[in-house]
Each structure stands twice: as C-alpha cells, then as structure tokens.
C-alpha cells in the first residue's frame, strides 16, 4: 500500500497567511496540523489492531514526520508501525501463507479520514490565531508550540 495523500482545496486564505508568516513559522504551523491529522487515524488503528500480538496495539503504532516529503512549502507525516511493531505490521495487515490478514491501518484511514481533515483544519486555525495574537501584542514569535 503506497502513501495516501490528502489534497484540500479552498484554502487560498490560509496559504496567504502562512506565506506571510515566513518559512519557519509556516513550517511549524503546518507540522502541527499534520500531526493533528494523524491522531484520529492512529487512535482508530490502535483500536482495530489485533490484541493477541503483545504490546503492538498499544505501543507499536505511531506517527513520524516525513522529512523527505516535507519540502517546497509542503508538510508530510507518516502513520505506521513503530519500534518492534515494524517487524510484524505488514504481516498482520496483509496476512501470510499461514495466517489470515487482519487489516487495521487501511480501515482506520478509510473510517477516520474526515476526522483527520477536520483536526488538521482546526490545528491550522489555532496555529494561525496564536501567531496573529502574538504579533498583535508585539511579542516575538519564535515557536508556536
């Protein structure tokens, strides 16, 4: 299964606001939004993951910033297996010749995609609002976190 990308249209004002912030702050706001988008999908994947795999369902699923795809003003992140879960995730998701597939990542993405987009939009709005508030009060804005 290849990467799934979300393209959201109608965000011209957000794009303009992020451009005005400058690259560093825009990247921080974007990274925060991407991480927020991952949370509903991670929660659902953990909920759907098989329970007979030790700690995999609770500790083996997480988020990582995708540095390779985060360039040219675009931000990206990955939801997937972490730690020791990396060695069994694909076997669980797609099955083996001796074990049936127990998909949990793709169904999690399919069922929570709208929630992820909503969470990302809310995080973008919150980040822009925080930066605007700091700029309006004359405070330096080094980080939005």
The global form is: elongated
Terminal-residue CA separation: 33 Å
Derived structural class: mainly alpha
Order of helices and strands: HHHEEHH
- Beta percentage is 5-15%
Report the radius of gyration as a whole number of Å. Answer: 18 Å
Strand numbers in spatial order across the main sheet: 1-2
Count every helix, treating DSSP H or I runs of 4 or more residues as helices.
5
Mean of pLDDT = 83
The biggest beta sheet is recorded as:
2 strands, antiparallel
Helix content: 40-55%
How does this structure look, described?
With 145 residues, the protein is mainly alpha-helical. The protein contains 5 helices and 2 strands, in the order H-H-H-E-E-H-H. It has helices spanning 12-21, 23-48, 56-59, 89-94, 105-136; strands at 61-65, 77-81. It has a two-stranded antiparallel ribbon. It is elongated and about 60 Å long. The chain starts with 11 loop residues before the first helix and ends in a 9-residue tail after the last helix. The model has no long low-confidence stretch (mean pLDDT 83).
Brief summary:
The chain is mainly alpha-helical. The protein has helices at 12-21, 23-48, 56-59, 89-94, 105-136, and strands spanning 61-65, 77-81. The model has no long low-confidence stretch (mean pLDDT 83).
